[in-house]
Amino acid sequence: MSNQEQNKKNQQLDKFRVNDKGKALTTNQGLKMNEDEFSLKAGDRGPSLLEDFHLREKITHFDHERIPERVVHARGFAAHGEFEAYESLAPYTKADFLSEAGKKTPVFVRFSTVAGSRGSGDLARDVRGFATKFYTDEGNYDLVGNNIPVFFIQDGIKFPDLIHAVKPEPHNEIPQAASAHDTFWDFVANNQETAHMIMWHLSDRAIPRSFRMMEGFGVHTFRFVNEEGQAFFVKFHWKPVLGVHSVIWDEAQKLNGNDPDFQRRDLYDAIENGQYPEYELGLQIIKEEDEFNFDFDILDPTKIWPEEDVPVKIVGKMTLNQNVDNYFAETEQVAFHPGHVVPGIDFTNDPLLQARLFSYTDTQLIRLGGPNFHELPINRPVCPFHNNQRDGYGRQTINSGQVSYHKNSLADNTPTPVSEEEGGYKHYQEKVEGKKVRARSVSFEDHFTQAALFWNSMSDVEKQHIIDAFSFELGKCQEVAIREQVLDMFSNVNHDLVTGIAENLGLAVPKKKDINYTKSSPALSQANTKKKADTRKVGIIVSDGFDEELFSYIKALNKANINPEIISDHQGSISSKGGSKIPVHHTFMTADSVLFDAILIVNKEGTKPLFTKEAPNFVKEAYMHYKPIGAIQDGASVLHDLGLTDEKGVVTNNAKQFVEAVAEARFWNRDGK
């Protein structure tokens, strides 16, 4: 039964998968062609003829191969997988995919950056999209979230303004995939509801090490409804099994130069290697009667529910275990929508969510050419669907019969609406009353308390990274007045924060304000995340004549599920002192220290040019990025020459300690220069 559940979507997609290898060339109508090199002409030097249907079909298809990229979340990468429930959530929701322990549901997950174009780099300082499509037995359910649990704005009517501000400035189309410019920070300073999100945006969360090592959040407050009609408020969390980890800003900039596809490649390679990314689904649940028991409005999308106040209940696990076969057909054409729900999941009056419920259908219409985007293979539900919709661009279903309306007698009034008891979706009956107004609830007016909560929750290292990020971003703004406005705004968060920024920018420190908010949430700090060596990548610098001990190190790394990659002065293979050969993955021309989580140096003797020029620079940069560094045998002399042998996270001739250092990942307390 479980195999049947998890293979449903794959079986459906198999009908559309085509491998052209070994096949005869045909037109799109199936006509076999005897020539594909030359157009039809009047004589071999004459004009091409309009009747050349093959030329016209081929060129027309090429002319229309590109569809408009997403306005936001344009640069994405995706994978297939499955979700398995740990327990029945029947007390909270009647959603079938959460109804019993062990129930499996196929999923498709798309990760993305938000602000950049499809051609931008992976390591922009940006929010990351984390969108999950569950192909349930009751229809598709889309959990369309981000890797940050709050958002910049409280009302969806301001979304166009936010995106216009953060996108490249319209007069010169600069900068790409960056918020470090005047229009964005002008928007921030004049829309102070952004304060909490900005703290997240300038933290390490905005430059994740990997899609596999970042959290996901539904952002909004949704409703669960059980069989008895009882409702609960709920927030969704994805918790990565590998923990939450980031790069530092210097790494991010260099990674975008060394490998702009770094996060894409990381996800793809992990799945190809069988190191399947895993995320546990967590829920925060609040009873309806407790809606107003907090010092914030639970519907405000710029607020979190602190995990210490509302614990996260872990209810299942998602495993991504299959890469896409075709990027365009699947990753680019997938259409998500927060309004794609199943019985047992409903909405709240969050004004940002309410606008999204309109916007997502609207954007698919322009991107995917019409109302039939749900018929594309990647978007089709696994359960059958029947309604009176017909025609339109891209229609694939061939509907038989004369009836396309409701109610009718010619088809016995079918398709027929079904009752709630039979699985029909019914909206939760929330009592609503009030005057029609353009307004915002006064309960949404506190913009700084949770921004301070986030700051209070950070480690000293994370706080310094936030100060540095503010200094970089504002330092790129040309208008000094904008820098001053932002400083004044964030003086409502913390005086130490704005003091550090002001000193870096050469500005006057704003007057200290009376801020007495000291609450913190340890769950917000990455200093408290899981630390595992699994799937980390170690660059091993080695050349011919290396000591056989390397093989025992590689065995220890493999046992810890670490990925070792050989870096040398030439490609092909290298030989040990005993004549054993090992393949080379990279040279110093094709690799850089920022591509690895740790560096291991093996030998020095006999390879002087390699280890007096390239290797020391490799090691010094890894050291500057606080990464683990190891050495075997005479490779330790490189570390000795650099004065690193007594530094934190620097390990010589001890495989066990080196693996432990790789798990630690960063050594922020190093004393060296």
TrEMBL record:
PROSITE patterns to which the protein is assigned, alphabetical: CATALASE_1, CATALASE_2, CATALASE_3
- Which ranges carry the Catalase core domain? 26-414
Protein function: Decomposes hydrogen peroxide into water and oxygen; serves to protect cells from the toxic effects of hydrogen peroxide.
Q: Record's SMART domains?
A: Catalase
Family per UniProt?
Belongs to the catalase family. HPII subfamily.
Name of the protein in question: Catalase
Q: Where is this region: Disordered?
A: 1-24
Instruction: Please give the superkingdom of this protein's source.
Output: Bacteria
Which UniProt keywords are listed?
Answer: Heme, Hydrogen peroxide, Iron, Metal-binding, Oxidoreductase, Peroxidase
Composition bias of kind Basic and acidic residues appears in 1-23
Q: Which Pfam families match?
A: Catalase, Catalase-rel, Catalase_C
Provide the catalytic activity annotation.
2 H2O2 = O2 + 2 H2O
Which cofactors does the annotated protein need, by name? heme
What Enzyme Commission number(s) apply to this enzyme? Answer: 1.11.1.6
